[in-house]
Amino acid sequence: MRFLFATGGTAGHINPALAVASYIKEQYPESEILFIGTADHMEARLVPNAGFDFKTIKINGFKRSLSPKAIAANIKTVFRLFDSEKASKNIIKDFKPDVVIGFGGYVSGPVLQQAVKMKIPCCIHEQNAFPGITNKQLAKKVDKVMLTVEDAVRHLQPKNEVALTGLPVRGELLNKSKTAARIELGIADDKPLVLSFGGSLGARPLNEAMFDIICENADNDSVYHIHSVGTNGKDFLEKFAENGFRQTSEGVYKKGNAEVRQYIDNMDTCMAAADLVVGRAGASSLSEIEAMGKASILIPSPYVAENHQYHNAMALVNRNAARILEEKDLTSEALKELINSILSDKSLLCEIEKNAKAMAVTDSRERIAEIIISLAK
After folding, report:
1. Which end of the chain is more exposed for a tag (fewer CB within 10 A), N or C?
2. Does the pTM of the predicted model rise above 0.90?
3. 195-239 per-position pLDDT tens digit
């Protein structure tokens, strides 16, 4: 069987596709898998590094502005769209896939559109509770639509019945116990652990709101706090250093019961050990929070397309599986109050954890692969 994956732009699109492709390759070693992406985004590095063949097309999204610069860019995008459709058709003709799978990003549009025209079985996976423009259009044409959360179906007009598959979560997260993680980190079982981060790049509003809280928690013996400032947050590391945090040989800034890192390399251990997670509401992060049954305070990024992180967060909030604090309301005092209100109420903490766990789909990779393979056959 031959499988063609189209995805790109962000790790939230690419990594789930790689997880499913890897599983298919494990189950069907003789299968052939090809990815289509762009040369100037993360897929150009992540896909070849994962061992899969990779071809590129030139495509980008439209600018949502009427400025002269945006209008010029959109005119260029229109011409690129025609070129990308032709390039997609040529790749499909050469590879002759049994099924074409879209995992989101602008690149999915022209590839899936051409595959539908060529009457090749097609399916898409939507990671967010509020689908992007590309998947909204494709849902009307493809043979199967797969969703991370059922809330997304309200915003789609699918040709056939949708399938709730969840979003693949890394195996190391599922296999890490809280006790083992605590031992690894050297944190006592009876001490609440707050884990906070704003994604790999970091989120300045979250770093700013967290600064006073972390400094206070450093001197608070009743809680432990681990925070990541992100790769764009180096100035915050300097600020913590000025406030008594000392850098270790591993690059961790520590003071008392708090530690700050630029990036959390052992997220599986930190997440497993945590009692409360504070961060953005990207689809991958939320799937990990659900899979591990963690209470969370979600601060959706208001800068993403269709404000989809807000909708992602509300899918949990409406099921009492998380709390939300919108960035427009984010202050150090508001965040501190919300953290303390959850940690001080053990029954509430347990209820949120239980509800988050109930939303988890831990066999997501298998569900998605089963649908893809059924279409290929």
Report:
1. C
2. no
3. 999 987 789 999 999 999 999 999 999 999 999 999 888 999 999
